[in-house]
Specification:
Layout: E1 4-7, E2 12-17, H1 27-34, E3 43-48, E4 51-57, E5 61-63, H2 64-68, H3 75-94, E6 102-103, E7 109-112, E8 117-122, H4 132-139, H5 145-157, H6 162-174, H7 188-197, H8 214-223, H9 228-279, H10 284-326, H11 353-356, E9 370-373, E10 379-381, E11 387-390, E12 398-399, E13 410-414, E14 420-424, E15 431-433, E16 436-437, E17 443-446, E18 451-454, E19 457-461
Parallel strand pairs: 11-12
Antiparallel strand pairs: 1-2, 2-4, 3-4, 5-7, 6-8, 7-8, 9-10, 9-19, 11-13, 13-14, 14-17, 15-16, 15-18, 18-19
Length: about 450
Amino acid sequence: MKATYYRDTMHTYMIIPCPPQAQTTGYQYRMLEMNRIDGILRCGLRHIDGTGFLYYDTTGKQSLTGLYEGRKIPGTELFRLLEMMDNVSGSLSKYLLDEQHLVLTGDQIFYDFSSGKYFFTYYPGEVVEPEVFRFLADSIDGKDKKAAAAAYRLCSVSGDDRQALREAIREEASAKDVELPWEKALTGRQEANISQNIPEERRGREEPGREPSDHRRRTYGADREQNAETDDDVAERKKAPEHIADQKKGSERKAAVIRVLLIVLLLLGAAGLFAVQLLIYISQRERRLCIAGSILLLLCALLFIAETVIRLRKKNKKKREEELRREPSYSRSDEADLPVFGSGTEEDFRFSSEEAGNTVRFSEKEMIGRLYGRDRGSRIDLRTLPLTVGKAQAYSDVVLADPSVSRVHARIYKGEGGCIEIRDLDSTNGTYVNGEKLDPNEKRRVQRGDEVRFGNVEYEYR
């Protein structure tokens, strides 16, 4: 099944020819053409010189290989793909379509940037082997143990019948959010609560350091409902520091408000005592008492004001120190796994003439150059290839912040003899080499001195 690509002014199509003598008026072709099946690429049937061609609309979409070739697939994205794959199988069953004709390859699975969904290719012709699981197993991020285990399991099952593969996809997609007990370090209280909910016939079988079998993985899902209260306790325990911080801030605000009110009352009291002797006729002794009381209240207000100012200065100083601590600091790396040079004996540095050999001079033709832009300082380093050029940081190695550049625009490969090869990844505004526009997914060889353009961004290879 060989696919070609065609782009007109508004749309991009993936074209797959129908098998010879195919009954294009049959049920599968008509259902595929006349319905919009959820998760399936929209398809149109055209006849050219007596041969039928299926036109799949891939506008605004990028293939799975185009997104993750040479990159690691996050575990969350793998489970999203499996979940949508399971949903597509259900959509096909509603239309009575054979899901064995679902093309599960990296080049025929597309990601839509606008909706964030994956779309699959349904081909009524011959059945294609599900090669995407081998690609997923090779590209999965090994740090996510659960996702890596799921990818390797599906890769091993992909050679079996489609029914077993579908059941494996459904199990892995449904188990993405299941938090198994051996995947986290349990506190004493949590371990006691879980042990109480485990049936007696299963107690004592969980040996430390031993991973439970698949049977126990499946049966544990039924016990999670009994552990809902324990999970809530854990969530509340995690939220406890945040509640304590909120309570502390609230108490500080109340103390500040009370302090301000006291200062205002003391000032009003001092002003009232001072005004009494001017408004009301009082004796000399009473006038002295009012003056002394007003001075005392004024001194108390000044003390409260000074204490408030000192508190604010200490708080601002502490805040500045915390900001300084949050600045990036550079610590020494872990040198345990690095090679130690200069620590060997004299015998370790004795080389024979065959081992030493002669120094070989590099040829400038075999050295990879760089792409230099029109703007000063704008260049693309090509020492680490392959790399992806685009606007989306999540999928691109070189990010070009230009409106004419697609999210995933092109990929650059290492060629022979110091040249490079550029492949257009079905970009909206196209990729140009010496003014000639590349077809979608076309790969072109670039020599030194050639001009390369990604949308409106121009470079020269030197």
